[in-house]
Amino acid sequence: MTLDLLLHNARLVLPDVGVTPGAVGVKDGRIAAILAPDATLPAAETVDCGGLWLMPGLVDPHVHFGYGSPKTDFLTEARSAALGGVTSVLSFHRSADPRDALPGERDLALGQSCIDVGFHLGITHRLHVETLVECAKAFGITSYKLYLQYKGQAGLSKGFTEIDDGLLYHAMLETLKVPGGVLGVHCENVEVIPVLRDPLRRAGRADLAAWDAQSPDFLEAENVHKVGYFADKTGCPVNVVHLSSREALEEARRHRRRSRVPMSVETCPHYLSLTCDAEVGPLAKVNPPVRCQDDVDALWDGVMDGTVTTIGTDHVARKRETKTEIWSATMGLPGVATLLPLLIHEGHHARGVPIERIAALTSANPARLYGLSAKGQIAVGRDADLVVVDPDLERQVDPARLESFADYSPFEGRTLRGWPVMTFLRGRLIARDGSIAEDVRDTPSGRYLARG
Predict the structure, then answer these.
(1) Mean pLDDT of 176-188
(2) pTM for the complete prediction?
(3) What is the C-alpha separation between 67 and 158, in angstroms, rounded?
(4) Residues with Cβ within 8 Å of residue 284, at least 6 apart in sequence
């Protein structure tokens, strides 16, 4: 057999297993062989990895492509992802009727993206719940997100009038009808926020810490408890997305101790590396808020002990001009290009987190949770989505080099140690040394990730 690609002289990062010397052979876009590091099988192209890490392509399970520049986000943000070693994303789709809007969104993604793209459905009213099974069959979408932070007056401001506990309960019942279905929930008790926020504003507070103070950890933890309680009553697997605090993490642990109904926990790199005292101010405004150092430390403990099951970026690409004042700034922040460097720098180098644990949280676990059976592992038969990583390469975060529509990063100016140097999608080189391959700019080859 003549391989299409041979990556040899590498250290293979096997999620939650370890690191071992080896080589990987690729044929027709899939991993065809796992070989000794000095293997010399005939191949159309041979790459000497120089003893660097070879990791599975990252699966970012939490991005919001289309929220920055709706017509071009799948172009720019996919490129940004590729620079960071991310080869698959699941983006949140929210529309009045997904049955009408999804075909166009899917076609837009396929025409622009240099990486593979799938969708979660955002649930904001009863029609979304009533059509979950229909959309699963039509579009291969088996994962959903319900926004508890848009209950009541907060929802009315965005035109959402049907988000309540009844919608949550109904969504769980319908998710159970979808094979492999997973219901994600944004946990934040928004009904209490005005009681805490209004005095802060009257006092003239406009710092990043005020954003944390107006939506403190116990509001997140209370919602995690509710979601776990409802999950226990319905038997529906749930996923707490972008969990940010020690107290909420403890609620997730409590649920797992008392219930056999699965609760997955996702956190984000900004909750693992930023605090509410960060000098970046409104650039780090996000929901739930970034919190204190104790919460950062607790989440790293959750990474190590398995309470945290996946890490996603919650990536939103907007302009710096929308992030100037804490109360009026837009929500969210870009992060897909810096996901892996941050985890290597803050986790592996600073805290001794094994790289195989990071690979599990960013590749194997999200692929398993969301039914992406061809992704997430270095194994024969899997897609040859692979990332060569130099664990000691130091590079300063420069938004101008990250290809994103966003012109800022909350991590800008920071020097991070550990960066991807080559990213392959099904054996095709799509990024190298901080640049997108020129042929990829002309002919992106991302595919749609249908599940179920």
Answers:
(1) 97
(2) 0.97
(3) 14
(4) 208, 270, 274, 278, 290, 333, 410
Which residue in the block uniquely carries the two structure tokens 């949280």? 361
Amino acid at 292: C
Q: What is the pLDDT of residue 27?
A: 98
Quick one: which of 149, 204, 152, 195 has its CA closest to 326?
204
Tokens 């590079």 map to which residue?
Answer: 395
**CB neighbours of residue 18 within 10 Å:** 12
pLDDT over 90 (residue 452): no
- Which residue carries 């993604």 as its tokens? 109
Cβ atoms within 10 Å of 219's Cβ, excluding its own: 22
Regarding beta strands 5-14 and 18-27, do their DSSP bridges make them parallel or antiparallel, or are they unpaired?
Answer: antiparallel
The two beta strands, 386-396 and 310-311, are unpaired
Kindly state the tokens that stand for 355.
């790289």
Look at residues 268, 285, 267 and name the one whose alpha carbon lies nearest to residue 276. 285
**Phi (first) and psi of residue 305, to 5 degrees:** -90, 0
Q: Does residue 366 contact residue 372 with C-beta atoms inside 8 Å? A: yes
13 Cβ contact list (under 8 Å, min separation 6): 19, 53, 54, 55, 56, 355, 356, 359, 378, 389
**pLDDT tens per residue, range 84-133:** 999 999 999 999 999 999 999 999 999 999 999 999 999 999 999 999 99
The half-sphere exposure of 299 on its side-chain side, counting CA atoms within 13 A, is 30
Give the type of residue at 161. T
Amino acid at 395: R
Q: Where are the beta strands (DSSP E) in 130-277?
A: 143-147, 182-186, 238-240, 263-267
Please give the structure tokens belonging to residue 192.
Answer: 């209490």
